Amino acid sequence: MAQFSLPSKNVKLIGIGLLVMIVGFVLMIGGGSSDPNVFNPAMFSFRRITLAPIVVIAGIVVILVGIMKVPKEPEE
Predict the structure, then answer these.
(1) DSSP H helices in 1-76
(2) Does the residue 4 lie in any domain?
(3) Is pLDDT of 60 > 60?
(4) What pLDDT score does 47 carry?
(5) 64: which residues sit within 8 A by CB, 6+ positions away?
(6) 3 found inside a domain
(7) Which of 27, 31, 36, 76 has the largest count of CB atoms under 10 Å?
(8) For residue 75, is it within any domain?
């Protein structure tokens, strides 16, 4: 069996971080207008301007924790 450089717990954290980032990018979707002469104020909603970037940054932090976390040595 192959030996991976990251334990499975770290890989799970990285996967969770990627999912959180995807959710953040999905929250940014929308707010456009089909007519370029009409302004749509929904483009500057709280969800797109504040919440989504915070969710994306939280995903990045979870990924960094997954990469940097040192596994505990097994007690013998």
Answers:
(1) 8-27, 46, 52-68
(2) no
(3) yes
(4) 92
(5) 17
(6) no
(7) 27
(8) no
Task: Output the six-digit token pair for 55.
Answer: 């969710």
**CB atoms < 10 A from the CB of 17, how many?**
20
pLDDT value at residue 62? 97
User: Angle CA(4)–CA(10)–CA(12) in degrees, nearest 5?
Assistant: 105
Q: Using alpha carbons, list the distances in angstroms from residue 48 to 22, 24, 25.
A: 14, 9, 9
How many domains, in total, are found in the chain?
1
Average pLDDT over residues 29-41: 81
| Domain membership flag for residue 36 | no
| Amino acid making up residue 76 | E
Using the structure block, give the residue that is written with the tokens 């980032």. 21
The Cα 63–Cα 70 span in angstroms is: 13
The pLDDT score that the predictor gives to residue 49 is 93
State the amino acid at position 70 in one-letter form.
V
Q: What pTM did the predictor assign?
A: 0.82
Structure token pair of residue 6: 């990251």
Give the range of the structural domain holding residue 17, as residue numbers without chain letter. 9-30+41-68
